Amino acid sequence: VYPEVLEGTFVSRPNRFVALVDGPEGRVVCHVKNTGRCRELLLPGARVVLARGRQPKRKTAYDLIAVYKGSMLVNLDSQAPNHVALPWLQARYPQAQVCREVAFGNSRLDFHVQGPEFSLYVEAKGCTLEQDSLALFPDAPTERGIKHLHSLMRCVQQGHQAMALFVIQ
After folding, report:
1. pLDDT, tens digit (0-9, with 9 covering 90-100), for 140-163
2. Residues 6+ apart with CB under 8 A from 29
3. CA 90 to chain centre
4. What pLDDT, in 10s, does the model give residues 88-103?
5. 3-class DSSP state for residue 90?
6. What is each CA distance from 51 to 7, 27, 163, in whole angstroms?
7. For 68-91, what is the mean pLDDT?
8. How far apart (Å, rounded) are the C-alpha atoms in residues 60 and 53?
């Protein structure tokens, strides 16, 4: 849930963490909640959605959380998939304990679901790339994503179950 949300117009992205947006208060510097390329989404003139930051001492007053691609709203918040995945996993595995941010080897995976007779490791990934009504992942090369998939493979090799959960945003 985002506090105070407002719309603006995307101007530019000087680096992967920051965007310039024209909003009701004029031009503002926003934190971009997704470090992926988002090249087909963050185009000059695109309508975007901002959320006011919750901490007053932060460097930027707003987070860029979503962008319109035509009439379709695309959530760019890379933390959103985990927020969606948690209640889904709890409902899917009601007798299990669901733990967040668990260490496995040299990785930190998003979830561990421990049931009476199973152990499941889950990595939740946000999918923001769309082409011809088809959701694609990833939107850019990702060493970290490869590391997580290799960790899931090691989970299976050690007798656990593993899941890559793609959340189309």
Report:
1. 777 878 888 999 999 999 999 999
2. 18, 19, 20, 59, 60
3. 19
4. 999 999 999 999 999 9
5. helix
6. 9, 15, 31
7. 94
8. 8
